[in-house]
Amino acid sequence: MVGWGEAVRLDLGGADRFAEAEQWWRDLVANTEVADDIGLPGTGLVAFVSMAFADQPGASVLVVPKVVVGKRDGVVWRTELYRAGDEPEGSIVEPVRRVRVTRYSEGHLPVTGYRKAVTEAVRRMRAGELEKVVLAHDLIAETDTALDQRFLLRNLAARYPNCWTFAVDGLVGATPELLLRKTGATVQSRVLAGTAWPGSGGADSAGSSLDSAKNLSEHGFAVLSLADTLRPFCTTLDVPTQPRVLQLPNVTHLASDVTGRLDPAEATGPGALLRLIHAVHPTAAVGGTPTPDAVAVIAELEAMDRGRYSGPVGWIDADGDGELGIALRCAQVEGSRVRLFAGCGIVVDSDPDAEVREAAAKMLPIRDALETP
Ligand SMILES: C=C(O[C@H]1C=CC=C(C(=O)O)[C@@H]1O)C(=O)O
Q: What atom of ligand 1 comes closest to residue 195's alpha carbon?
């Protein structure tokens, strides 16, 4: 689904951002006249959503584009939204502009600081303070001219066809992780945690290292956090007993596809998906276990604002359906300044040097997309 122009936009922050977003969306749906002859998920009124990871400052955004073009199972549609008195939005398409990276520099948390943060997290886990925490760091790329986000999008979509490629208000990426998709009463999630990359486990990156006790425990925490928070909304919830392997061009992950049937009371209304997202975010794929302790440790040891990296990103429609991934393998674009992020799940037996290498492997999608000739 591609949208352009901003018919309506909501900027919000803080711990109440999910509840406020839900209320705003319900009101907007109630006050908008819609003619939708197709009636598929994603047709009619749609908002693009990108929520911050943390409660503070929590800067998040919902954008209702002026024009949306979508495609599902061979059906193509175009939705246009006007406010009273608006001119129709033009559709002049300019060619994608290529950029060149002129330099990379340290972000708010340089690699040396990241290594120290991981070492400290492991020390705390050995002392029994928490079981898992996902720590991230950032990197700055500068480009010769203002970045055309479509350049990144196009390169990411070409190289990562199995991922969800997204761009919402300057946050651009291709994530392999589905936080929640809601279609009527069906809810689905793809939980990822546990990573191997070329060289991490010997010749075969999908071999021994992915099967390690460390990766399996990292994965187990992530699945449990999603299942425990989603189950109260469901009449049934299918959680695989064993993860499968998800192969991507840069890394290999342990993956669990979870499917649930929503309680009828939870399946209806425009705010349904936002309510579910509020309940499950942050899973231990980006937060940790126990969640409140992990979120506090992230704020203390990273000591940076993650912004919308590792927050929910995607779209919602007027029926409360939609698809929200976790914003991973992404960058925040501001003109010619691009801030890249990557994080790793840390457990008691994590090796700080290996986590630094894993984070570097996770930054490759954006780096490759930026550096595509
Ligand atoms: C936090 C990230 O990845 C998460 C998702 C998959 C595997 C992960 C891991 O093995 O550490 C992370 O939990 C990231 O890409 O920045």
A: 10
| 177 among known catalytic residues | yes
Residues lining ligand 1, CB < 6 A?
Answer: 134, 136, 177, 192-195, 218, 253, 285-286, 310, 328-329, 342-345, 362
| Sequence ranges of the domains in the chain | 100-370
CA dihedral 331, 334, 146, 373 (to 10 degrees): -10
pTM over 0.80: yes
Ligand 1 pocket mutation, candidates 179, 190, 195, criterion most atoms within 8 A of CB: 195
Query: Active site includes 116?
Result: no
For the residues 20-48, what does the mean pLDDT come to? Answer: 95
CATH code of domain 100-370: 3.60.120.10
Q: Which atom of ligand 1 is nearest to the CA of 344?
A: 11
The percentage of the chain sitting over the pLDDT mark of 70, rounded to a whole number, equals 97
Catalytic residue among 66, 132, 214, 362: 132
Q: Mean pLDDT across the stretch 237-244?
A: 97
